[in-house]
Write a structure and sequence with these properties.
DUF3775, mainly alpha
Length: 144
């Protein structure tokens, strides 16, 4: 292994465990799937009324919504529990996966994520519609 390869390997050692990131990917994709299902044809939450003005639309209502909210809230709490280094790496992974940075610019991405940190990492990341995909592509790009 050359000195450059060892240097790159050290730069890509993650503070946040890849398995933790994979858990975040699963949860983010579950949240995204729920949103995509809602907007697929635009009619899932419309209520049809019959002649007696009774709700003829059947779904689990609040139970459905609570499950979706729980997943998002759970992911928000998990992100908020990260330390500064882990949070910066998670943001950097999303940026690499989104194409804002190349894998070779990993350290720059982490540095910039740390610089921009404002205590609202969860809100920022959960605002990305394809967060799960970005994190997954980021992990693949850096070989984690």
């Amino acid at each position: 292994m050359t000195a450059v390869e060892r240097k790159l390997e050290r730069e890509w050692d993650l503070t946040i465990g890849p398995d933790t990131v994979r858990l975040f990917i699963e949860k983010a994709k579950a949240i995204s799937a729920a949103v995509n299902d809602d907007y697929f044809d635009g009619g899932e939450h419309e209520i049809e009324m019959d002649g007696d003005t009774r709700d003829s639309h059947s779904h689990d209502g609040l139970a459905e919504e609570e499950a979706e909210d729980f997943t998002e809230e759970e992911l928000r709490e998990l992100i908020n529990d990260l330390n500064v280094d882990e949070a910066a790496e998670l943001v950097a992974l999303a940026w690499v996966g989104r194409g804002d940075y190349e894998a070779s610019e990993w350290q720059d991405a982490v540095t910039e994520a740390r610089r921009r940190s404002n205590g609202r990492t969860a809100k920022y990341l959960l605002g990305m519609p394809m967060l799960g995909d970005y994190l997954e592509e980021g992990l693949e790009a850096i070989g984690a």
